[in-house]
Amino acid sequence: MSGHSKWSTIKRKKGAEDAKRGKIFTRLAREITIAAREGGGDEDANPKLKLAIAKARSANMPKDNIERAIQRATGGLDGEDMVEITYEGYGPDGVAYLVDVLTDNKNRALAEVKHAFNKAGGSLASAGAVTWQFERKGYIALEAGGADFDEVFLVAAEAGADDVVDEGDAIAVYTPRELFSAVEDALNDAGYKITDSELRWEPTNDSELPVDKAMQNMRLLERLEELDDVQSVSSNLMITEELATAYETAS
Fold first, then answer.
1. Which domain holds residue 128?
2. Distance from C-alpha of 79 to C-alpha of 20, rounded to nearest angstrom
């Protein structure tokens, strides 16, 4: 998963910059609202809400914003009728994409995602055309400072993790979908600071391209993730050291 962990590192750097400008607060608030609507407003009894709130806190989202997002779902405020959708598509040179969307306007979301693919020379795909190339995995990022990699590995492995990766500024733990909460709880109980955790799509095969062609896909990844309705984007593009350096230099 090393090629895909590089994209996680790039996203964390960009996410920190976006959080300073409040750019991601709308997206995080929507995620909290739909989690509360589905499972109730008590985070201790609603794992999905607990996860969404943790992500919001890690982005320094104000407490009042979090509470308003929960109230919107539980009847304290007028809410939006939001739905979750996963779009499938192909980028330049056939790179596979899954785009998770949370929106109150399906027509707008579809138009924006479709435009992003078309502008990059890609296209949307029919349902099922791409998902077979991915599997749902748990992803947990720990603050690297002060954490011993070998100790993290032992705790995570004992709880059922699939893989533990040193990403430099963080330690990433990958889990089977069904053991995601158990591994997260074990890491919390061991005292590690979790900076991000989510269920995400991980590719089962990689598409490695020359840097010039891969950069077209990197720009598509960025363009898709900048859409307000998009919660996450996954692709099977292999991000090599050379590609990561080229992208960060161009950004």
1. 83-132+204-250
2. 26
Domain boundary among 74, 93, 123: 74
Q: What average pLDDT does the chain have?
A: 86
Residue 177 has pLDDT above 60, yes or no: yes
Q: Report how far apart, in Å, the C-alpha atoms of 93 and of each of 2, 217, 239, 247 are.
A: 21, 9, 15, 18
Residue 180 has a pLDDT of 92
Query: Which tokens sit at 139?
Result: 């992803």
Shared domain for 115 and 219, answered yes or no, is: yes
Tokens of 138: 């748990």
Give the whole-angstrom CA distance, residue 22 versus residue 45.
28
Average pLDDT over residues 86-95: 96
**What pTM value is reported for the model?**
0.79
Question: Strand pairing partners for 140?
Answer: 173, 197
In one-letter notation, the amino acid at residue 235 is S
Task: Please tell me whether residues 66 and 110 are part of one structural domain.
Answer: no
Cα 237–Cα 202–Cα 91 angle in degrees, nearest 5: 35
Q: How far apart are CA 121 and CA 15, in angstroms?
A: 26
